[in-house]
Amino acid sequence: PLALAAITRHGSRHGEALKLAIPEADLFVSKKWSDALSGKVPALLYERPIMEEIPAWWAAYDGIVFFVSLGAVVRMIAPYARDKHTDPAIVVVDDAARFAIPLLSGHLGGANALAEKVAAILGATPVITTASDVGGTIPVDLLGREFGWTVERQENVTGVSAAVVNGELVAVVQECGEAGWWTRPTPLPANIRVFRSVPEAGDLSRYGAILWISDRAEEPALVHPAVARKVVAYRPKTLVLGMGCDRGTDLAQVEELVARTFAERNLASASARVLVSLDRKQDEPCLLEFIARRRLESAFYAREDLYGVEGVQNPSAVVEKYTGTPSVSEAGALLHARRFGDADLIVPKVKGKQTTLAVARILNTAKSAPMGKTAAGGNA
After folding, report:
1. Helices 50-60 and 70-77, interaxial angle, to 10°?
2. 69 near 103, Cβ under 8 Å?
3. pLDDT tier at 349, thresholds 50, 70, 90
4. Burial letters for 100-123: b for 16+ Cβ neighbours within 10 Å, e otherwise?
5. Which of the 8 DSSP states describes residue 327?
6. Predicted confidence (pLDDT) per residue in 40-63, tens digit
7. What would the mean pLDDT of 332-359 be, rounded to a whole number?
8. What 3-state DSSP class applies to 217?
9. DSSP label at 236?
10. What share of the chain is helix, strand, coil (3-state, %, to 5)?
11. For the whole model, what pTM was predicted?
12. Which DSSP letter does residue 220 get?
């Protein structure tokens, strides 16, 4: 949610113009200047000093646009600013609406993007100072964020970001994941080189930074002491887990099988995207709790959907007898992964005491991915 906060007559009018363009935003105007409003959009009038409104706004909104002087906003929000990962995006617009200035959480919090949006609506100039945005290069801590990628080796982000913005030679090694991560209208900077594998990048010591996009947990060449501090790892959501289990299986068995399999196959747990199973398992407590704990998507397919899926390596007559399909884990993983694009079965069915697991890798995201059918025929 977004708040627009005005303290002056002109600011109130600019805030109203902004709310006309962003109707979902909440417009807060000092009651003193209510007569400046046209009434075309609803406004929330406050009577207390604006300082007293800040705590509630800070807790309730992801972004706040202040139509107040920059210095005043700095003093007002200073007691509440804590961390760039949690603070709301703060943008300041001057009384003449000439400039839109991202003041806080410009990069991670989205204030830079918000300032550009506000400026476009009001005919103002956005004042952006973040180095990666000004330089038109890769924002190391945000790469792939729109796709749900997670970032590992956070301790290296600051140093790697410095290498990127200072024009040092940078290797982007993308082994999997969405290809459309470069979204700027300008070409990729000349100091950025893109490779499909670590060996293809060659001598890693020549790079000032290495951005490793992979669903593999480890790469020996990237943990070498001379290289490790230069690496930031990104985990695309490329792994689809197909699972089967007996009724009443406990959660510990599910967790053990997944952890063991991922460790043996050098797979990154952060790249797990979705758990897939048979529709009759959509109320199985162990699977539902595992999905919730790992924050995974879920899909449950009817047996006729899983029957005859191409690429199944371990069909079972016993499984077919009890479920109506010769494969649940392999068929489910492959079927769902292919809804995103091409897919490979990278972990054929492995067995636990009361569980089975297969893992498919999404090779591209050329297609949209509708979810699997539930027993009721809807979407899971």
Report:
1. 70
2. no
3. very high
4. bbbbbbbbbbbbbbbbbbbbebbe
5. -
6. 899 999 999 999 999 999 999 999
7. 94
8. coil
9. -
10. 35, 25, 40
11. 0.72
12. G
